[in-house]
């Protein structure tokens, strides 16, 4: 791999295992996911069985990671999903997958900017400052762009500090609950099959799967990683295990606090304050104030992580000649794809302004709709990656076991297809809307992929030499 900076390549050997894990776990936004996403799962899903649902999701993504990371030594650049799918299924499928990934990451980023604005506006109104929500979104966008322009390791350190602070306060709550003993005494409630596989598991999985969006971004940093053949697989497994263990333990602890029989009712009655009430009881009022601040830092860390991820997708498309060539320009000092960062920030600003000036509610419309679209988009791309892994290793000489290159990817593919159908059938619950646009999200995702495939067909016909080079720029 070329480790030189300049107009063509990102800076190699600039980040290690710890930095990449920070990026991925920060994208999962532990504080936001636990405090914001799990209460609806408790209220509308399988109640006390939520911790077990995280274990099921963790197993699914570990299976996915087996084949995904097996291809790391064959695809080590910033192209990530695009490069993986292209190598296994051809350039047409690769471009289609890239467009679906861009749609998903853009959607979740827009949704999180809106959610940040909701919490920031609430915090500032208590201080007597009242501004439209979209101005807060644009303000944090400017800060994100500033940090995204710097060396990737700097962002990694910032994300690490934010992530550690989130984990610490939630672990304090978990420990306090365990020491207190819970409402009905400590038990395995939350992991028992009768609770996990009870009524509402499908609804719970809709919320739980969304908590994993972004873990696959480990591969995007392959070009900048130290020893990517080892670092990327390790970072992927560490990220999945860390996310799964932390969410499972935190949700198990809250089940113990309220009691397995009462936890669903408590969540239904107090979705917003479900965890805050427990924190105030177990730790005191100071913890509630800290958690409110950490919600903002959690969202900021998430935005910075997705900003860097999208920058590298734009960089890859520019490098391949599928988009404006200048998108592949690398900052001479910081080694970052700074032009890609400015372009994608401009697009985000236009979308946020469109939502804001049209009077869209930042939570019930922007965040809810974009979250549903993002989960569907990522699941669709992950299905393609699983298929690409199977096809790639069937026609490539390798020393991998059949469990690695066939059994695990097939199981992952089946689980991801089921998850896509599950989310599709529960979009109304996930988004809180029956708008025809929302109900058409699955078709929109598939149509986006089809557009990429059609563009590839046009490119193959009109520019065959360019088409033949696609997917090879990051070998």
Task: Summarize the structure in short.
The chain has helices spanning 17-28, 30-44, 50-70, 81-89, 91-125, 133-149, 152-180, 193-196, 201-210, 228-258, 263-269, 274-282, 285-319, 338-357, 362-394, 402-425, 427-431, 436-439, 441-462, 464-469. With 475 residues, the chain is mainly alpha-helical. The chain has one domain (17-468): Up-down Bundle (Amino acid/polyamine transporter I), CATH 1.20.1740.10.
What is the strand and helix layout of this fold?
Layout: H1 17-28, H2 30-44, H3 50-70, H4 81-89, H5 91-125, H6 133-149, H7 152-180, H8 193-196, H9 201-210, H10 228-258, H11 263-269, H12 274-282, H13 285-319, H14 338-357, H15 362-394, H16 402-425, H17 427-431, H18 436-439, H19 441-462, H20 464-469
Helix pairs in contact: 1-7, 1-10, 1-13, 2-9, 2-10, 2-11, 3-9, 3-10, 3-15, 3-16, 4-5, 4-15, 5-6, 5-13, 5-15, 5-19, 6-13, 6-14, 7-10, 7-13, 12-13, 13-14, 15-16, 15-19
Keywords: Membrane, Transmembrane, Transmembrane helix
Membrane topology: Multi-pass membrane protein
Subcellular location: Membrane
